[in-house]
Amino acid sequence: MKQLIFALLFVIGSMGLNAKDTNCIAPQEVQVGDIFKIGDSEAPRYEHIKFPRPNFIIKRGGVANYKGLPGNKVVVTSVEEKMDGTLIVKIKRADGGRFFGSHWEVSADLKGALETGELVGI
Prior knowledge:
six-stranded antiparallel sheet; alpha+beta; 6 strands; 3 helices
């Protein structure tokens, strides 16, 4: 009986340790000038960061290569709260470059991007 209780407590305790801490910043605390890093997307494309479609990137003279995005630092340029409560942020590259060589700024659903790891707080 003691072994069963011990095993149960061990399993419950290990679940708490394995919980994924996706963000160290609450979405409501984000301000203009905060810095994030672009993470790897679990999906084939980024869902919560609204990057332009490849045909628009190519039309503006850029290269549609999504593999170079993870690890880039970005700066929040504006924060907007929608009527349904979602926070939409506009981000630009911290080094002053363009995304894909064609776009200065993109928008992102902050809460969704933080939860999925598309944006990571620094």
